[in-house]
Structures are given as C-alpha cells and as structure tokens.
Amino acid sequence: MTGISQNFFPNKTDFLTKDNEPKGADYLLLSGTTNDTLMKIRTEIIINASKEKVWDILTDFGNYSSWNPFIIHSKGQAVVGTKLTNTMKNSDKDMTFKPTILKVETYRYFDWLGSLWFKGVFDGHHYFEIEEINSNQVKLNHGENFSGILSKMILKKIGEETRGNFVKMNMALKEKAEG
User: Fold this and answer.
1) Distance (Å, rounded) from C-alpha 49 to C-alpha 4?
2) Could you give the CA distance from residue 101 to residue 125 in angstroms, rounded to a whole number?
3) Half-sphere exposure of residue 163, counting CA atoms within 13 Å on the CB side?
4) Which parts of the chain sit beneath pLDDT 70?
5) Which helix H or strand E contains 172, and what residues bound it?
6) Which residues are CB-neighbours of 153 under 8 A, at least 6 positions away?
7) φ, ψ (nearest 5 deg) of residue 55
C-alpha cells in the first residue's frame, strides 16, 4: 500500500504491522481521537476464479470448517437481518460470536456486525467485497472496522494476529477457489 493520503485516513495516528509500517495491502490501522476510536484491518488478494465461485464459497457458511483456518465453524445464511453463529480461532483460543448480516449484494458484497458482550464495548463490522477483474479473476477486499470503548486495548493485544488470520483465510479461499 503506497501513497496513503491524510484525506483518506484523516485521523491516522498509528499503523501496526509486523514491521510497524504499512506492508502491501494487508494492514492494521489504529486511528481516532480520545472520544471516538476506530481501528481497521484491511486485506486484499487476487483470486483466479469467477466472482460466482468466490461468492459461493464465501457464503456457504456451513462448509467453513472444511477450508477456513480462521472462522473454523459457521452457521447461517447470507440474508440481511440473519444472525450467524461463527467460531473464530485466534491463538489457541476459540471464540463464538453471533453477528448480524447487514447488507448483501450477490456476487459483490456482504457484511456483518458483531459485538463482544454488548454493543459499544468491542464491535466489529466485518466485510467481504468482490471486485471482478475479468470473468475468471477477482480481487477480494476483506476487512473489519472495530469500535467501542475497549477496542484499542483489545486490538493492541490481538490485532496483529487477527490481521494475520485474515490473510490466512484469504489464502485458503484462494486455494479452494482455484483448486
């Protein structure tokens, strides 16, 4: 990732990556003010498969356990208002959460919003955006925006590993879609 403008990240205060700088298109951004803290994980990957194939794999939540090293179990449907039951693996710990699907644009985009304990403590707005490059190649933009009173503290502890797990999930999706 090059050429980050101050206008694109107006409250930029700190980037955390393995080398403490933006690296490629995968990064963790901690930004915000004392009143409003927002953290972001952004990843992207080129997948040599159709948008339909990538979409079908991403929205087949019941099969996540067969390929996904990060969200190791998921139940639900990609329907607005539906609650998913997702089990995520970070380190040696599994954590189950129940986000709500917010938006679905078939073959293009879906997202969900989940909260730890209750809204406002540690909230995650997770999204998947599929950009068609040609009929057999897409770019997947995969990320999450975090907010809440404990988000900065929690992400300082798990942010780098979580970003790495996004990348692992992207690579596994690529392998499955291209295989």
Assistant:
1) 29
2) 10
3) 26
4) 1-38
5) helix 151-178
6) none
7) -60, -50
